[in-house]
Amino acid sequence: MKNFPTVSTYQVLKNRKSILKNPLPFHHRNFERLGDTFKVNIGPSGAILFTRSPEYIRQVLQKQHKKYHKSTLQTRDLAKYIGKGLLTSNGEHWRTHRRMVQPAFHKKKLEVLLHIMHAAIRKELERIQPSESKDMLPLMGDLAFQVVAQSLFSRDDIQSEMEALKQIAETNQNMLIREMRQPFMNWWFKLSGEIKRHLSYSKQARELLDTIIQERIVSASEKDDLLDMLLKARYEDGTSMSRQQLIDELLILFTAGHETTANALSFTLFLLAKNQKQQQKAFNSIARVDLNGSNLMETLPQLSYIKQCIEEGMRLYPPAYYIDRMSIKEDKFGDYTIPKDSMILLAIYELHRDATFWEAPEEFQPERFDPSVKKDFQEYYYPFGAGPRMCVGNNFAMYEMILVVAEILKKYELNAVTKEVEINPLITLKPKEVILKFAPR
User: Fold this and answer.
1) Which CATH number does the domain housing residue 215 bear?
2) Model's pTM, two decimal places?
3) For residues 202 and 171, is the Cβ–Cβ distance under 8 A?
4) I need a labelling partner for 119 at 20 to 30 A (CA). Which of 153, 187, 281, 377 fits?
């Protein structure tokens, strides 16, 4: 990749403290200075290619996706904490389990889950007291976690187990971020026993899930929830998933399923609180919609402006703000050659704010996603990824977020106590603090 514009190892080391805290400003300066695609030298271990080019992003995710795999950031580094499931595997292993898990998220199955999801949302939102101010991320994190837990297990008596699982997920994520942003310290992380300690936390999480699975099997009860669907899933030879594989998939559904949703909801609610005109329009659009109906799937299309607000929130603050890939074959992009075994980071955050493709890209304008007028954003809008590896739970997440925002706006007018949100880019894009005041309508 020698012909690409280059950021030197010296520049990386010089900015290492700011990169560890938040790498996005450093990369943005490089995009503005070097163009849409450049490489970053990271010392003896090689170079990483960064791109916000919509043509190349589409090539990697869709047109030439067979030439690219998930990188070792996920298949090795993340996998050691949450196992080898859909998010952290490649090749035939991934294809086989995608075929098994996909049916659990078909719309007909989601119709069954919608009422479980809705009940969990309402129960968690009861924690809001009228006229109080709350930090959105902890609230939305607990809410999204309970939605996933209820959708998986349909149980109210495992609160302590779920809280322990949530704590382990957050603790291990923070450790992984340190490993990724301070690779020169990995020898110390191993020598000091830090990695070993966090792997023991993962073992505890697996034991918790194993107990819950065993209790379901022994009870012989059918709940029609996600655990039932995964227990019934079969390989082509008629066999079921191993216990280890089932736990891997559950861990990944927990980790990916609650965190990205909590982040997206926190940012969207902040944007609505900051933009009172759009918030009022959102309330007006749902004021007469009955959220108590027996068929929620028929109600969801009536909440189209709420969906637009969420889509715009995910444009400005995409949870998967970078997507990683590794080239497994040589590829061509314009005049450039992408060698085999090249590490590529697709800068979704940058693409979503590129003025070349978005009018007033820094402004919150849900109207741009109006189905009757919106342009074809397919080539430069990737809130759930794209291609064969597009997020398997995208509809589940969108339904959940629509119901949460609609339920909140029905009862409360939101006002921003936090005036500007500070982002915290970890595995996913988080806000550091989003304090909103809930004024009763």
Assistant:
1) 1.10.630.10
2) 0.92
3) no
4) 281
